[in-house]
Amino acid sequence: MPRALLSVSDKTGVVDLGRGLASRGFELVSTGGTARALTDAGLPVVSVSALTGFPEMMDGRVKTLHPALHGGILARRDRPDDLAALEKHGLGLTDIVVVNLYPFVKAAANPATPFDTLVEEIDIGGPSLVRAAAKNFRGVLVVVDPADYPALLAALDAGPSLAFRYELMRKAIAHTGAYDTAISATLAT
Predict the structure, then answer these.
(1) Which of 49, 89, 127, 185 has a Cα-to-Cα distance from 103 of 20 to 30 A?
(2) What are the distances in angstroms from CA 147 to CA 6, 67, 78, 85, 135?
(3) What are phi and psi of 6, to 5 degrees?
(4) What is the pLDDT of residues 25-68, one digit of tens each?
């Protein structure tokens, strides 16, 4: 069964996307609030903790930084040694990564946001997931913008082209780059 990881701070359209993916035979794997939104809509969801065998910890600071996720994202589908490594460790492939990052820019725009609260809005796991999926764009579709959900579903129906995969990858790298730039610029002031 193909697998999609959904972990979004902006929940716009995520339930419809989840329904679309589930109807196409995808197993949905998710974190905290995204998992709640999907299960509240009646969709079957595997929690990241169930997949990794490790609980979220430190108020969610550590939840997706685990080989059970990153191995399944980074495994090159055309490399038997990568696939054998997954099998040896009982890990599955992840075919789609849908992630958007903590709302750092929104928090930074509010002058009343305390510095320690602002620091907590620096996403660590999200950029790691996005970059891993982007790096392996030939085997993993990465989506960072809810506006791309309908195109993703349409591409799944048609068979995603390499050009479509590349465009999503390019957009994902730009997304994490802009995010890091915003953090750097904010901290420089």
Answers:
(1) 49
(2) 15, 29, 30, 35, 22
(3) -120, 120
(4) 999 999 888 999 999 999 999 988 888 776 675 665 566 666 77
